[in-house]
From TrEMBL, chains A, B:
Any one GO biological process: galactose metabolic process
Catalytic activity: UDP-alpha-D-glucose = UDP-alpha-D-galactose
Subunit details: Homodimer.
Protein name: UDP-glucose 4-epimerase
Cofactor(s) this protein requires: NAD(+)
EC number, UniProt record: 5.1.3.2
Pathway(s) where this gene product acts: Carbohydrate metabolism; hexose metabolism; Carbohydrate metabolism; galactose metabolism
């Protein structure tokens, strides 16, 4: 039986932490031809090579030429701020859909250099959508964030919560969601988009070959904990910002979700954007309304929160490292509890996030101890 | 006594209705060297020639070479979406400040082609700010709009009303205001910006040489009324959308402000952005806080609303034309009453809008009858 030709899907920021795990997840399905564009502002090309390597090794013995092709990502080094760089990708052949992951993502930095954030996160997104439209590519999965909720009035947080970001970074996400919603409303027969609001992606691929390797000192708790456990930052003690929040143990609570569960959410979103359904599809007909704009936003989280202290305990268990920490004052802008209400993605996409905290920490620690210097590149 | 060198000020969209009257107002002060960039998407180059002509004729007999230079606008034909076009303007010499007027502005159209609106109104603004920053130009007066208030909970509308635009066009204005506020907060010693939220600019320069000449059928009431009075659109009767609003006579109420009063508001805003004060300056030290971001938004309106029916009556009085109109159903998106609370601009900028409705209509009618085909260009 002849194989269906592969749908070409572009992952922007494909070499980054989340992007590279999405790329790998797509490669492993052998259903897509995956392209990536990344300027390696915060990532290394090796991530993409490892993804192709893992997917190629997973091929069955009787793999066809098309299967082999589907296991290798087509990688473009380019800047989304450059129209020419993006057009080069689209000139390589018709692209069916885009998973738009690339962005600047440091909350603190975003208030220091807001123009860079607005340019890369908003300006470049508008330009990408224009180029997609010029090439007849009308489907986007967008990497949004729980930060769009600001300080949510209701926890666990449902998608119906009014968006009210409290940082420049968060505002760039709200703006892009708004633009996508308006675009889908204007062209209900053409554009479709799904925003996925990530809670706290954590962990690494179980092979230990891929994981998070941010440039510079990690801004997020888990990668910081794992880098401390391999001996980095020994001279600057770990800081816990506030233990007087209205939470279980007084420290901030976040909803950690395994990066592989999160990545799988993108497969479901791609299927929801498509007119075709896989056999045994879990996509509900309610994803898009019959009339009106085909835009939807979903939380991707487990629906269970973990406090800072419980994360330290879990990473101690995984790595054996005895963490020392100082409890200091609250940090401006920290929200006490960001736990997702994941019901909508469960109901409409058939999404679930079964991987538990213990495995997130084990997988993270495997990656970190196998690759103490990350991808080992500059 | 030697003259101070002129501050170079760029007016984007300088050939448009509002832009050309701002340009003229600046030229007449002989205090600035005025530059314009416009792609003539919705305007004609003649507007700028007329502005230079009026200002040159107004020069005193003993005008210096610098005075003569200050009466002529330096005009660039270029697209704000093109980095190269904007950079060409900045390459012409140091620019002290930008009055950013250029935008797409049709509310209805904005929901049909949202990407064009987001690109021109938001993407190009981000790029303009980047180019300004690269050239050490840190002052902007931004053309915002009463539409940022959506359906306001309180009328007359104070600036403290939460922004909640109800159209794509309005959202582009809110986004740009947000970006400017974040930029000024990040660089309190560098960036300064003032957003001017226009209510309904109306009328024309008293010479009859300059006025509003939109391409296509006017979207706004007053220019439509004046074009009808000179005999256009005779076959399609004037439509009044709804007479059952909770207003004096049931038709929608807007706050019309003479275009020359509005333009003068930009002179005051430029002065407020500057460290220098003109003799007899009306700018209050309260415009910007001592600490924190130097960003402020002001309403520019008269603070008196006029209903659709009273505008028809006023234009009848000015033109003598007997308008026939059909009262039809409400139009989606129309807000009953948009009247400014102009107190803040009065108090902090010393702004006032003394020109009355009668004069707006007379000036408009003079322009229209002297130029039945506008600037007469294609
Ligand atoms: N990691 C989180 O906790 C988290 C949470 C919520 C949302 N997100 C969002 O998920 C996305 C991915 O986050 P991540 O954690 O993988 O970050 P990351 O920095 O690892 O990945 C982003 C990738 O985009 C690339 N990139 C940045 N600017 C670019 C440009 N101008 N052109 C081309 N490529 C560019 C970077 O080099 C990087 O590879 C981002 O949009 C982020 O805002 C992340
Ligand atoms: N007229 C109103 O009632 C009103 C009310 C509130 C706010 N505003 C705002 O005031 C500003 C001016 O409005 P106006 O009534 O004078 O409109 P206008 O269309 O007459 O002026 C806008 C000018 O910008 C130019 N322009 C558009 N896109 C451009 C681009 N990409 N590059 C270069 N130039 C470009 C147009 O050619 C035009 O000359 C706009 O920002 C508008 O949103 C207008």
């Amino acid at each position: 039986m002849a194989q269906q030709p592969l749908k070409r899907v572009l992952v922007t920021g494909g070499a980054g932490y989340i992007g590279s795990h999405i790329v790998l997840t797509l490669l492993l399905t052998r259903q897509y031809k995956v392209l990536s564009i990344d300027n390696h502002h915060n990532s290394f090309p090796t991530a993409l090579k490892r993804a192709s390597q893992i997917a190629t090794e997973a091929l069955p013995e009787d793999a066809t030429a098309q299967d082999r092709d589907s296991a290798v990502v087509e990688s473009f080094t380019g800047d989304l701020n450059s129209r020419a760089d993006v057009e080069k990708v689209f000139a390589s052949g018709p692209i069916w859909g885009v998973i738009h992951v690339a962005a600047l993502k440091a909350v603190g930095e975003s208030s220091e250099i807001p123009l860079d954030y607005y340019a890369t996160n908003v300006g470049a997104t508008i330009q990408l959508l224009q180029i997609m439209q010029e090439h007849g590519c009308y489907s986007m999965v967008y990497s949004s964030s729980a930060t769009v909720y600001g300080t949510p009035p209701l926890v666990p947080i449902p998608e119906t919560t009014p968006l009210k970001a409290e940082s420049v970074y968060g505002r760039t996400k709200v703006m892009c969601e708004t633009i996508l919603a308006d675009l889908c409303t204007a062209y209900p027969d053409r554009w479709r988009a799904i925003s996925l609001r990530y809670f706290n992606p954590a962990g690494a691929h179980t092979s230990g070959l891929m994981g998070e390797d941010p440039r510079g000192k990690p801004g997020n708790l888990l990668p910081l904990l794992s880098q401390i456990a391999i001996g980095k930052y020994a001279d600057s003690p770990l800081k816990v910002f506030g233990n007087d929040y209205p939470t279980r143990d007084g420290t901030c609570v976040r909803d950690y979700i395994h990066i592989l569960d999160l990545a799988r959410g993108h497969l479901l979103a791609l299927e929801a954007l498509s007119d075709e359904r896989a056999p045994g599809s879990t996509i509900s007909p309610d994803v898009f309304p019959k009339e009106g704009g085909k835009y939807k936003a979903y939380n991707l989280g487990k629906g269970h929160g973990q406090s800072v202290l419980s994360m330290i305990a879990a990473m101690h268990k995984a790595s054996g490292f005895e963490y020392k920490y100082d409890i200091i004052g609250r940090r401006v802008g920290d929200v006490p509890d960001l736990t997702a209400d994941p019901t909508l993605a469960q109901k409409e996409l058939g999404f679930s996030a079964p991987l538990e905290l213990e495995q997130m920490c084990e997988d993270l620690w495997r990656w970190q101890s196998m690759n103490p210097d990350g991808y080992g590149e500059q």
